[in-house]
User: Fold this.
Amino acid sequence: MKNKELLKRVGYIVLICLSFFVATRYYFEDKIILTICWIVIGARNVYELVRRIKNSKKEDYE
Assistant:
């Protein structure tokens, strides 16, 4: 996969995650526990994404 394609996909994924975060922030304004759950899920997904990007960069250089 080319770097531009990877960057484009990462951008779309980050944009989707941020939009979900903003939507859940307003929707669950009074429900703190659900907001915390969504933040944890989003953070976990971002961590997995960063880990995959790092692994793909290692494969490109080897």
